[in-house]
Recover the amino acids of this structure.
């Protein structure tokens, strides 16, 4: 479920897929909590925003580096003008560099990586016949620094096993995206895919850092937030339309994620 931003530059060569962008005038958002199979690396430049990644939430700081591992549920949004670098590295490059199974720290304090992003921006602005190769080299330099200094879990699985787990996780996420407004549960997902509850929960948590129940709730919260923003429905209506069993449960979950009540969006609770 990709949500690439407009004007992102593709640096793909014959072997690898890499995408780079620097920008962000005005308010912006990924619109919903989402995931993708690429490694996403963000270097924050200026402005105010908020980032949710897995079980963590950040207020990005200038020159801070923020990493989203493949298949992690995340969102990055701002209500004011802000600027950031965005780099996406495809799974084939991760596999060939031996880091497909690694997980990286979400918040990286590495001024050298921030400097490399500044060089990427200058190179992208140059835009000559050498730019594509130069950007690929700089992306490789960032990836190597992350692998050497910022891993939080080791690669301890075979390639086939890792591929199988990632494929299952992607299928579960897609299933949740299609059915989250219905009364789905961990049990119904296990029945859909034919695995035991213990196995499917362990694999999902291993790949995403989240429980299945948390992802279902997060997907519902984001959809309900979109409905609230339309100002066409009450809090109770948004809760029911998003798959929550009650408005009170939705309000509690919404407050836990955002730190405020859904009624603060200007809607009246019923």
């Amino acid at each position: 479920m990709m949500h690439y931003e407009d004007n992102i530059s593709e640096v793909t060569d014959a072997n690898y897929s890499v995408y780079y962008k620097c920008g962000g005038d005005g308010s912006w958002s990924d619109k919903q909590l989402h995931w993708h199979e690429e490694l996403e690396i963000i270097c924050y430049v200026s402005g105010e925003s908020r980032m949710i990644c897995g079980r963590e939430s950040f207020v990005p700081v200038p020159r801070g580096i923020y990493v989203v591992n493949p298949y992690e549920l995340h969102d990055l949004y701002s209500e004011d003008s802000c600027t950031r670098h965005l780099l996406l590295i495809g799974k084939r490059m991760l596999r060939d560099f031996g880091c497909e199974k690694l997980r990286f720290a979400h918040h990286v304090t590495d001024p050298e990586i921030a400097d490399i992003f500044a060089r990427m921006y200058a190179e992208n602005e140059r835009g000559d016949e050498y730019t594509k190769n130069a950007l690929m080299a700089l992306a490789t330099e960032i990836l190597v620094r992350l692998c050497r200094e910022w891993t939080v879990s080791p690669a301890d699985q075979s390639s086939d096993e890792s591929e199988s787990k990632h494929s299952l996780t992607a299928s579960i996420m897609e299933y949740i995206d299609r059915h989250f407004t219905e009364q789905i549960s961990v049990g119904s997902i296990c029945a859909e895919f034919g695995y035991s509850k213990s196995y499917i929960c362990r694999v999902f948590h291993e790949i995403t850092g989240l429980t299945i129940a948390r992802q279902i709730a997060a997907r519902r919260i984001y959809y309900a937030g979109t409905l609230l923003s339309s100002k066409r429905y009450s809090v109770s209506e948004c809760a029911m339309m998003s798959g929550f069993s009650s408005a009170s449960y939705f309000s509690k979950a919404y407050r836990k994620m955002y730190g405020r009540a859904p009624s603060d969006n200007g809607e009246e609770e019923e």
User: Anything to note?
Assistant: The longest helix spans residues 159-179. The CA atoms of residues 236 and 248 lie 8 Å apart. The longest strand covers residues 39-46.
